[in-house]
Amino acid sequence: MTAKVIAVVNQKGGAGKTTLAMLLAGSLGNAGHRVLVADADPQNTALRWASVGEAFPADVEDLSGEEGKLHKHLRKREDEYDYIVIDSPPAATAPVTESALRLAHVALVPVIPSPLDLWASEMIRDAIQIAREKNPNLVARLVMNQLQPNTLISREVIGLLPNFGIPLLSATLRQRTVYKECAAEGHSIEGLGSRAQMAAKEVDFLKRRVLALLRKVEAS
Ligand SMILES: Nc1ncnc2c1ncn2[C@@H]1O[C@H](COP(=O)(O)OP(=O)(O)OP(=O)(O)O)[C@@H](O)[C@H]1O
Ligand SMILES: [Mg+2]
Q1: What number does the ligand 1 atom closest to the CA of 147 have?
Q2: pLDDT tens digit string along 108-138?
Q3: Which of 21, 111, 125, 215 gives a 20 to 30 Å CA spacing to 12?
Q4: Looking at ligand 1, which atom is closest to the CA of residue 112?
């Protein structure tokens, strides 16, 4: 099977790209899939996350040096993996981000429900549009991250989303301390065991929504 490629992108720093990429990759790995996290961010936080523990269930490699050739590098390795998850730097127009969007089947854009974060995400929306000139089938979804449900600001920002230009994935990540603990301990969410049951369910649901999206792309 040729790998399906998921690029996690946003111009906004700290939106949750690495957290989303690693939770998703870890959960796919725990489900028995062969998964590569291509750490395309020179900060290498995905790589550091995986290096803390010994048993992160996906390969994580620093590929930030590939820059604009990332898609060519990954194309040569598509048969080694079922899924390739690209964690990108907070730079919408960086060559490595363009390269990731050129290869991806699905682009996920994590957004914190705050107007500032939404405004700062407009550049990636434009970058995705430009990427479609070379990758016309690229499907993109916003992923609400650090959601605090039932707050007025969350509801207000969610109200702005239909006009944003990228549809919202019907799965969110709430603000949860266990997600920070995953990184601190080098685990996937499933690796935290019973203390992270609710979060593991949330990530499992998100994974299923992403897999459904990939199936839809494949069928079209
Ligand atoms: N759902 C969440 N619940 C709690 N903390 C979170 C959540 N998502 C992200 N964080 C925390 O927010 C911070 C930023 O997250 P992360 O590093 O994943 O963002 P990023 O978009 O990759 O940042 P950068 O642009 O610097 O690469 C981290 O401290 C992370 O642990
Ligand atoms: Mg990051």
Answers
A1: 1
A2: 999 999 988 888 889 999 999 999 999 999 9
A3: 215
A4: 8
The CATH number given to whatever domain includes residue 165 is 3.40.50.300
Q: Give the pLDDT of residue 1.
A: 66
* Alpha-helical regions (H) of the chain: 17-30, 45-52, 70-75, 95-103, 115-120, 122-131, 152-160, 177-185, 197-219
Query: Ligand 2: distance of its center to the CA of 48 in Å?
Result: 11
Backbone angles phi, psi at 95, to 5 degrees: -55, -35
Count of structural domains within the chain: 1
| Mutate-to-test residue for ligand 1 from 8, 10, 19, highest number of ligand atoms within 8 A of CB | 19
What distance in Å separates the CA atoms of residue 163 and residue 161, rounded to the nearest whole number? 5
Q: Which atom of ligand 1 is nearest to the CA of 177?
A: 4
Of 80-84, 96-100, 164-168, the poorest mean pLDDT is in: 164-168
